[in-house]
Request: fold
Amino acid sequence: MHWTFLIIAGLLEIVWATAMKQSAGFTRLFPTLVMVAAMPASFALLAFAMRGLPLGTAYMVWTGIGAVGAFLFGVIWLGEPATLLRLLAATLIAGGIILMKLAG
Reply:
């Protein structure tokens, strides 16, 4: 169950980071409200996950899901550049997440 909380928390991190971008500096109401709802939900689920997972594992996986997910969202839906180095960086982060999960 802790891993489920952690994965959902990571997905919510993508949501709030994307909503923050879409809020245009908190000048657009709906994206701002989405961010305000998703951020504490993400933190709460991370806290629940940390009840049964090591701090380093939980935090690294949570930030990794958010970082790679936000990167992919930006590339796919916002037209941000997908240069070779950016793709390599995202791949290395994803690899780190997988290794951390396999490590325990």
